[in-house]
Amino acid sequence: MTLTLRQLRYAQAAARYGNVTTAAKVLHVSQPSVSMAITQIEDHFGKPVFVRQRGSGVSLTAFGHVVMAKARQLLADAEALETLGDADSGLRGELVLGCFEDLAPYCVPSILARLRRRCPAIDVVVREEGFDTLGRHLDDGATDLAISYDLGLPASATATILCELAPQALLPSDHPLAARETVTMAELGGEPLILTDQAQSWQHVLELFHLCNVRPTQAIRTGSFELQRAMVANGLGVALAYSRPYGDFSYDGRPLVRRPIADPLPLQRIVIAQKARNALAAIQMVFVEETKRWFDEVWPTIHADRPGRSGAAKR
């Protein structure tokens, strides 16, 4: 093997921080050492792995994403080999987690805290992404694992179901429908519908209306889940959502209410996904275990009043 683990480790740090100087400081080596490692890797492959930018900034090429994904797995396996006889606390290494941007605040910090207590030497790089980039980065190896709704994932991915949720209506607290125990899609279709302008998301919501032969009278799009909730709370329309923050208040302090949908609608899955042909490294397996435990133990307490079930089935 002409490439060394040191070269790969230096290049991995440069990819993570997007800057050769910063990577060198973190690694406690000279900047030329990191630059030389990158050059040697590119000479080995005969094609660029990084795009150089002014001020020693770097970014990965498409080929570089593939190389660094393989490098992360190789480095993780090498570190796991060194600590083969140790307990979980001896595991060390880095994994890159992609998480759908609306789900990340719910679960990722708590999962990371649990993981740190179990394996403090595992470093997780978190990327909050939309459905459009989440699946692409999982497919090209830029991320090792992804937590997401089961929307837009590539055919190359395999997914473990973490939980299943039914959609609920979001309504202004003073809306007439808020006094009802349940609402129908037809009733919601007569109100201005507020959608999040995220790839796959708004199409999925409209498909739910289509399944009930309902066409919304008007659709307003927002850039984020929190803006959607705030617009509902301020009486600008209604919305459909699968999950919610703890407490039914928007950012500006206005209340909103959730009501179950009376129509039979398919449940949506939250999954943790990986590229099917990639064997999980030890640190990734530990992360998957902690994620499944969190969804089994904590998620039901957050969503105790919501229909749905948790489990660990395969797609």
UniProtKB/TrEMBL annotation:
Can the keyword DNA-binding be found in this entry's annotation? Answer: yes
Q: What keywords were assigned to this record?
A: DNA-binding, Transcription, Transcription regulation
Domain HTH lysR-type, chain residue ranges per copy = 3-61
Checking PROSITE patterns in the record gives: HTH_LYSR
GO MF entry, a single one: DNA binding
- Domain of life of the native organism: Bacteria
Family named by the database record = Belongs to the LysR transcriptional regulatory family.
Q: What is this protein called?
A: Transcriptional regulator
Protein species of origin = Dokdonella koreensis DS-123
